[in-house]
Amino acid sequence: MRFNDLSFAIIGRWKLRIIEQFLYCSFAPTGHFLQVFYSSKYALSGIVFCGHCGDIFRRIKWNNRGCRSTVWRCVSRVLKKTSGIDCLARTVREETLHEAVAAAINRVLTLDEEFFETFRKSLDTALGVNGELDIRQIEDRLADKQRQLIALSPHDERYNIVADEIYELRDQKRRVLLDEANRDTAAKKVEELIRFIREQRGQPVEYDEGLVRKLIEKVIVYDDSIKVVFKSGADVDIEA
Q1: d(CA 161, CA 30)
Q2: Residue 220 CB neighbour total at 10 angstroms
Q3: What is the DSSP letter of 129?
Q4: What is the DSSP string of 22-33?
Q5: Backbone torsions φ then ψ of 152, nearest 5 degrees
Q6: How many CA atoms lie within 13 A of 101 on its CB side?
Q7: Contact 121, 152 (CB under 8 A)
Q8: Rounded to an integer, what distance in angstroms lies between the CA atom of residue 226 and that of residue 75?
Q9: Which of 84, 94, 134, 170 has the fewest CB atoms within 10 Å, i.e. is most exposed?
Q10: Structural domain boundaries in the chain
Q11: What is the pLDDT of residues 146-194, one digit of tens each?
């Protein structure tokens, strides 16, 4: 979905982009000692991905000639001898990763009421109208087909045709119910993000493990930027 020039003028390019995005082991190389940590203890574990090969980044304690630091590296690059993938992804210092995530959250905190209104409208468009009417129509047709089936003899050539239509209607009903559940889940995630933004208005935040678990879906590391994707569907690119 795209927005017209009026929407662009009201909310700006990067805010517009946020809305649109909603729609649609250990290894020790020579001279280094690495200790790999992969634990749910760290909020970013398992949700940081490589922009080159798509593999995950892992948190690593790095001791390079006595200089200790914590970095995040693409698993395919760390384990290239066994993975067979010579990934060119960069190594990211943990401080850089944390700063990028905090910057993305603070960028979202600058959203205003006009943004919320536009976001809600685009959400309604993306998710569609309430499916109750569709469910009622399907159930009425299903009941009608079941009455037809009861009235037919199993030897009637129409029997299998009606039976197949019943199976199709049942599948259609299941899909509509699943869509409704997905709409409810998406709407709740957006409401959680909006509520958080309003609660934090004017209060810049620092990196926080709890906030990451609550708000962030994934982080993608590119050569010159870090993309932070929120559970609401919005995403923010940070130069880092």
Answers
A1: 70
A2: 18
A3: S
A4: HH------TTEE
A5: -95, 150
A6: 28
A7: no
A8: 17
A9: 84
A10: 5-109+233-239, 128-202
A11: 999 999 988 888 999 999 999 999 998 888 888 788 777 877 877 777 7
Residue 143 token pair: 């009941």
DSSP secondary structure letters along 92-117: EEHHHHHHHHHHHHHHHTT--HHHHH
Half-sphere exposure of 155 (CA within 13 A, CB side): 0
Question: In 3D, which of 24, 14, 191 has the Cα closest to residue 120?
Answer: 191
pLDDT tens per residue across span 95-122: 999 999 999 988 887 766 666 667 666 6
Q: What letter represents residue 32's amino acid?
A: H
Question: What phi and psi, each to the nearest 5 degrees, are found at residue 38?
Answer: -140, 95
**151 CB-near residues (< 8 Å, 6+ apart):** none
**What gap in Å lies between CA 29 and CA 194, rounded to an integer?**
46
Sheet holding 216-221, edge to edge: 48-50, 216-221, 225-230, 235-239
E strands in the chain: 32-37, 48-50, 57-64, 67-74, 92-93, 216-221, 225-230, 235-239
Q: Assess contact for 220 and 47: CB atoms under 8 A.
A: no
Tokens 């569907």: give the residue. Answer: 233
Give the CA radius of gyration of the chain: 25
Positive or negative CA dihedral for 193, 196, 198, 200?
negative
Find tokens 């049942």 and name the residue: 170
Q: Are 92 and 71 in contact (CB under 8 A)?
A: yes
